[in-house]
Write a structure and sequence with these properties.
heterotetramer, A: 93 residues, mainly alpha, Protocatechuate 4,5-dioxygenase, Chain A, 70% helix, B: 285 residues, alpha/beta, Protocatechuate 4,5-dioxygenase, Chain B, eight-stranded mixed sheet, three-stranded mixed sheet, 12 strands, 24% strand, binds fe (iii) ion, dioxygenase (chains B, C), ferrous iron binding (chains B, C), Xdiol_dOase_suB (chains B, C)
C-alpha cells in the first residue's frame, strides 16, 4: 500500500489514479480491505492496515486535505478543534 | 583544511516552505515564526560559507521505500528538487560538491561509519525548507553548494542519539581533514516535538523542547543518554528527528556561541525552532 | 537463544553455478573443484541449520547502481532470484526469515552498525552460488530460510577488514540474543584472489590465499590489520571481497574446528576455495 | 553508461537494445565516445570511459563473450592465451 502512495509522486500517476482508483489500487496488489479504506478515505483504517503517515499524506494532499484535518480524524475531533488545540500550545499527554 | 564556521538547527516542516512560497509570512498565524528567523538570517547573510552540509531525512520522496539507509551521503554535483505530490517547490535545484562529498565518505567509512552512497538523489522539503529558512530569496541559486547527509528517523530502528552524535564528531574530523581551505556551514534539521498520527496526534512538549534547546548548546552529551523510546515518548513519534541536531552539534567545537534562537508553536502540527551557533573561538577577553 | 553451528566460506563465482546448471561438473576443467566440495557437502547434509545468514555482495543485479550501501540486510519473507542478463538461474527462489532479520537489524543498529534495510531484494549469484555449493540438488526449496547480509566490496571506499570483522562479532552477539532456539549456519562468500579488469586481469596470488586461509581459522585478527590497499594489491581488485569471510569468522567462536577446505585454480578468472568450520565446542578430551 | 548496462537485466530491454543499439544508447544519454565504444565493442574504451566491469560484462554476456575473452582484451593477449595462463595458475605481478 505504501508503494502505491509513493507512486503518486508523479503527475502522470496522479492522473491515472484519479481516472480509476480501484483499478490503480488493484495494480499495486492492495488487499480488499486496503482498497476499501482508500476508496472510502478511511484514514485511520489506512494507518491500521500498514500505511505510514508520510505515504498516506500523499493521498490526503491530492484531496486537498491538511495534516490538521488528519489530526482531527486520528483524535476524533474536528479539524477546527484540532487546530485550536495546536494554537493553544498543542495537545499534551 | 576546511573549517565549520557555524551550525544552524531548524525545523523543516513543509508548511514553512509553503508559507514562503505563497507569500503568507506576514499572516497572523506565521508572522511570529518568520520574525523569529530575522536575526539569524541577517547574521547568516554576513557569514556565507563555501559549502553547506545539510543533515536531514527524506520523507518518501527521493528514496525508494524498500531501501532504508541508517546514514547516507549524496555524492552528486546536482540534486533535483523532488515533486512531493503537488509539483516541485518553486526554488532552485541544489548544486552539489562532489569533492567534499567523496572526501567525507572516505573519511567516515574509514572511521567506522557504514554510509550508504547516493550517486543520484532528489531532495525533498527536509533539505529545501532549511535552505529557505536560511535564505528566503535565493534568486537563481542557493548561497553555496550542498552536501546532503541523510539519517533514517522515520522507520524503526532509528540510529541512537549517541550514534548520531558520534557521526557528527566523525563528520567534524572529516571536514577538518579536507585538503582545501573551505568554510563550511552545518545544518541540523527537523523537530521539535510533534506527532502526526495515532491517538497522540498533535502532541507537543514545550518543557522537553526547552531542555533540548539548552542542552544541545551547553551539554549535548546529556542528550546522547536518551534512548529511542525516550525521544518518542518525550518528543512524539516524529519529534525523534531532533536526533539530527546532534549530528550537527557533534561536528562543532565543545564550546559554541549561540547567535540566536527562537521557538514557535504551532507550525503545521509541530513545535518549530531555529537555533544558530557560531563555531569560531570567541575573541579572547 | 539462537546458536551459530557452522561457518562456510566459499567463492561465489557465477561460472561455478553455471557449471552445475549445465551439468559440467565432471568436465576436466571442473572435476577437481567439485570433488573438493564433496566432503563439505556431506558434512553439511548432516548438519542442517534452521536458518542461514549469507554474507555476500550484489553485482549490479539486485541493487540500483546509484545506491551503494556499505552494509545492508534483507528483511523480506521472499527473495526472487535475479535475472543477471541471461535469464534466471534454474534454482529455487529464496525464502526469508523476517523475524530473525528484524532482530538482527535492531541489535546491529543498537550496537552502532549503520545498516541499510532492503524490504525487497532480488538476489544474484553472490547469494545463490554459495547455496549451490552447499546444496547441489535443492529440489523445490533450499535447505532452510535465509537472511541476506550485503557488503559493498565493488565500489571504493569499501569497509575496512577490521570493520567487517567487528560487524561479524556484533552479528554473533545479535544471533545469540535471539529469543527463539534456532540453529544458524553462516556463509561468508567471495574470493579468493582475482582481478577482472585492467592490466592485472587474471592476477592470482596463491601465497596470499594460503596465508588468508590459515589465518581466517587460527588468527583472524591478523587479517583485520590489512588495509583496503593491501587487499587490492595482494588479492586483486576483486579479491578484496574476501573481507566478507571476516564477517562470517567474527560471528563464530574464538576457537573453531576446521571440517574441510579445498583450494582450486582457476574457476573462471579466480582462485576459488571452500572452507568449512564447526563452531561447536570440541568434545572434552 | 553503467545505468544503460544495468538496464539490460530484463529480456525486454535486451530486445530493444538489439533492435537499435545507437538509439538505445542515446536514450540513456551516453556521450558520443561512449556510444562509439559500445557500438564498436571496444571493451577497454568502455572501462576507460567510466564503465565498471560488472556492468560492462552484461553487454559481453549478451554477445556470448566470456570473462576470459575480456581478460584477453585487457591484457593484450588472445582468449586462448589468457585461459592458458589461468590454467597454469594465473598471472602474477
Ligand atoms: Fe521531517
Ligand atoms: Fe563477487
Amino acid at each position: 500500500m505504501n508503494k502505491m502512495f509513493m507512486s503518486l509522486r508523479t503527475a502522470e500517476a496522479r492522473e491515472r489514479f484519479t481516472a480509476d482508483e480501484a483499478g490503480y489500487c488493484a495494480s499495486f496488489g492492495l488487499s480488499p480491505e486496503q482498497q476499501q479504506a482508500v476508496l472510502d478515505r478511511d484514514w485511520q483504517a489506512m494507518i491500521d492496515l500498514g500505511g505510514s503517515i508520510f505515504y498516506v499524506y500523499k493521498l490526503a494532499m491530492m484531496d486537498g486535505r491538511s495534516m490538521q484535518y488528519l489530526g482531527g480524524v486520528f483524535t476524533g475531533t474536528s479539524e477546527e478543534e484540532f487546530l485550536a488545540a495546536l494554537r493553544a500550545g498543542g495537545r499534551r499527554g | 583544511m576546511a573549517e565549520v564556521i557555524w551550525g544552524l538547527a531548524t525545523s523543516h516542516v513543509p508548511s514553512i516552505g509553503a508559507a514562503m512560497d505563497r507569500g503568507k509570512t506576514e499572516d497572523e498565524s506565521w508572522k511570529d515564526l518568520f520574525d523569529g528567523y530575522a536575526p539569524a538570517r541577517a547574521w547568516l547573510a554576513e557569514h556565507r560559507p563555501d559549502v553547506a552540509v545539510v543533515i536531514y531525512n527524506d520523507h518518501a520522496n527521493g528514496v525508494d521505500l524498500d531501501v532504508v539507509p541508517t546514514f547516507a551521503i549524496g555524492t552528486s554535483d546536482h540534486y533535483d528538487v523532488a515533486d512531493e505530490g503537488f509539483g516541485k517547490r518553486p526554488v532552485p535545484d541544489v548544486v552539489g560538491h562532489p569533492e567534499l562529498s567523496l572526501h567525507l565518505l572516505e573519511s567516515l567509512v574509514d572511521d567506522g561509519f557504514d554510509m550508504t552512497v547516493f550517486q543520484e538523489l532528489d531532495v525533498d522539503h527536509g533539505l529545501t525548507v532549511p535552505l529557505s529558512v536560511w535564505t528566503p530569496d535565493p534568486g537563481e541559486a542557493w548561497p553555496c553548494p550542498v552536501v546532503p547527509l541523510l539519517v533514517n528517523v522515520i522507520q524503526y530502528p532509528q540510529p541512537t542519539a549517541a550514534r548520531c552524535y558520534a557521526l557528527g564528531q566523525a563528520l567534524g574530523r572529516a571536514i577538518a581533514s579536507f585538503p582545501q581551505d573551505l568554510t563550511v556551514g552545518v545544518l541540523g534539521t527537523g523537530g521539535m516535538s510533534h506527532q502526526l498520527a495515532g491517538a497522540r496526534a498533535g502532541f507537543i512538549n514545550p518543557e522537553f523542547d526547552a531542555m533540548f534547546m539548552e542542552a544541545v548548546e551547553t551539554d549535548p552529551q546529556r542528550l546522547t543518554q536518551l534512548s529511542r523510546q525516550d525521544y518518542v515518548r518525550e518528543a512524539g513519534s516524529e519529534g525523534i528527528e531532533m536526533i539530527m541536531w546532534l549530528v550537527m552539534r557533534g561536528a562543532m567545537a565543545a564550546e559554541v556561541t549561540k547567535v540566536h534562537s527562537h521557538y514557535f508553536v504551532p507550525a503545521s502540527n509541530t513545535a518549530a525552532a531555529v537555533a544558530l551557533f557560531d563555531n569560531r573561538a570567541p575573541a579572547p577577553a
